[in-house]
Design brief:
The protein is α+β, with helices and mostly antiparallel strands and 216 residues long. It has a single domain, classed as 3-Layer(aba) Sandwich (Aminopeptidase), CATH 3.40.630.30. It is 25% helix and 25% strand. Strand 2 and strand 3 form a beta hairpin. Helix 1 packs antiparallel against helix 2. The longest helix is centred in the middle third of the chain and has 15 residues. It binds coenzyme A (COA). The site of coenzyme A has 18 residues, from helix 1, strand 4, helix 3 and helix 4.
C-alpha cells in the first residue's frame, strides 16, 4: 500500500469535488454544499494552491485538503494575514485509518515552511484538537459578531506568532459561494438521497456553542 500526498492540480478538481460530496453527504445538513465550496474556492484569488493537497492510495485519490487566505482585522483596522483550511475530506470507506491525520499534518508542516503565522478554522473540536488547535478565544480572536465559539480554532505555527495580534476573524468570501448557482452545479453529479439525520443537529449545536473556557 503506497500513500502519496501531492499538491492538487487542475486535473484533480472534479474527482476532489466528487470525494468532497461523498464525505460530507448528509453529515452536517441534508445533502451537502462543501463540494460547491471546493469548486468555488479554485476560482477565487484567496485560493492557496501551494497548500492544497490530495492524498493517494496506490495512485487513487482518496482525500483532499484545500487552503484559503483568511485574516484578522484589529481595532485599528490593520489586517493580519492567516491561512485557513476546509473542506478537508477523506472518502468515507477510508475514515479512521489515519489518512486524514497524514494529510492534515503534511499541510500544517508545509504552512510552517511557507512562513505563515497561524491556521484558523471552524469545525468540531475533536477533529482539530489532536493537532494542537485551541479555541480562538485564547488569542482574543472573535468572529465578526464579537463572539468566541468553541468551534472556531487556531493553531499558531511558531512561538509567539500571534503575539500582539487580536481582533476579528474574516474567513475568505470564497467559503460562502453564490447559493443561486448551487442547484445547477449539483445537478452535474449523480442523484443522491437527502436525509435528515441526528448528526446534523449535533453540528448545529457545535458551531453555535460559545467558548466559556478561561485561558488565563
Ligand atoms: C475529518 C476527516 C477528514 C478525518 O479523516 P480520517 O482519515 O477519518 O481521520 P484519521 O483517521 O486520520 O483521524 C485522526 C484523528 O482525528 C480524530 N477524529 C477523526 N474523526 C473523528 C470522529 N469521527 N470522531 C472523533 N474523533 C475523530 C481522532 O483523534 C483521530 O485519531 P484516532 O483515530 O487515533 O482516534 C474525515 O473523517 C472526513 O472526511 N469527514 C467528513 C468530512 C468532515 O467532517 N470534514 C471536516 C469538516 S470540519
Amino acid at each position: 500500500m503506497k500513500v502519496t500526498i501531492r499538491n492538487e492540480e487542475e486535473k484533480d478538481y472534479r474527482i476532489v469535488e466528487e470525494i468532497t460530496r461523498e464525505a460530507f453527504w448528509n453529515l452536517y445538513a441534508p445533502g451537502a454544499v462543501e463540494h460547491f465550496i471546493a469548486y468555488s474556492i479554485r476560482k477565487h484569488p484567496d485560493y492557496l494552491p501551494e497548500l492544497s493537497f490530495v492524498i493517494e492510495l496506490d495512485g487513487k485519490i482518496i482525500g483532499s485538503i484545500i487552503y484559503t487566505k483568511a485574516k484578522v482585522v484589529d481595532s485599528k483596522g490593520v489586517e493580519h494575514p492567516l491561512v485557513s483550511f476546509g473542506p478537508v475530506s477523506i472518502l468515507p470507506e477510508y475514515h479512521r485509518q489515519g489518512f486524514g491525520r497524514k494529510l492534515i499534518e503534511h499541510s500544517i508542516n508545509e504552512a510552517k515552511k511557507l512562513g505563515h503565522k497561524a491556521i484558523i478554522l471552524g469545525g468540531f473540536t475533536y477533529h482539530y484538537h489532536p493537532y494542537g488547535f485551541v479555541g480562538s478565544k485564547k488569542y482574543n480572536l472573535a468572529m465578526p459578531d464579537g463572539k468566541f465559539y468553541t468551534g472556531i480554532m487556531v493553531l499558531p505555527l511558531y512561538e509567539g506568532a500571534l503575539d500582539g495580534i487580536s481582533g476579528t476573524i474574516h474567513f475568505s468570501e470564497a467559503m460562502y459561494p453564490d447559493e443561486a448557482a448551487f442547484a445547477e452545479y449539483d445537478a452535474t453529479f449523480p442523484e443522491k438521497e437527502k436525509k435528515v439525520l441526528p448528526c446534523q443537529a449535533k453540528f448545529e449545536k457545535a458551531v453555535s456553542e460559545i467558548d466559556t473556557t478561561s485561558y488565563e
